[in-house]
């Protein structure tokens, strides 16, 4: 796996990128604290450089599902602290839950303004092969890694778990210092 720092990578118009969900969340659903401010700045600068070079960004339905679930889970945690709801099913029925779903939908619409949605790229046997590897890495990470290989994308992630994906022969861009220590 070839890994580059966000600040060092020089995109050109021929590059195609897949932004991992954590990067999209830094860009479009930032949760500010001292740690994330630096990450947000680095990925925002990288994103601006990609847009300036008119590079192609791609996403897929698994990622859309993952990001909606992350946003709803985060909003539910906040609602639990405020005593609004205890579980997702009851939370969805509250006005706060409906607002959170609206946030998730708006987030998804924003992602799709920048990224091209690709679906149906894996056959049954390919998906079965990914399932067999679930004991070695997170299914979505496996899926995204294979998606990037199949689509010839550069993976942009802050997730260090991609180190656990077996035989990942991709180009990766990150601001996560653990890749470089």
Strand-residue proportion: 5-15%
| Average pLDDT metric | 92
Order of helices and strands: EEHHEHHHEHHEE
Which CATH C-level class is it?
A: Alpha Beta
- The gross shape turns out to be globular
Return the CATH topology.
Answer: Rossmann fold
Q: Looking at this structure, what is the CATH superfamily?
A: 5'-nuclease
Helix content: 40-55%
Helix segment count?
Answer: 7
Distance linking N and C termini: 15 Å
Descriptive overview:
This protein has a single domain, classed as 5'-nuclease (Rossmann fold), CATH 3.40.50. With 181 residues, it is an alpha/beta fold. The two termini are 15 Å apart. It has helices at 21-28, 34-52, 61-81, 88-93, 95-114, 124-132, 139-151; strands spanning 2-5, 16-19, 56-59, 116-117, 154-156, 171-174.
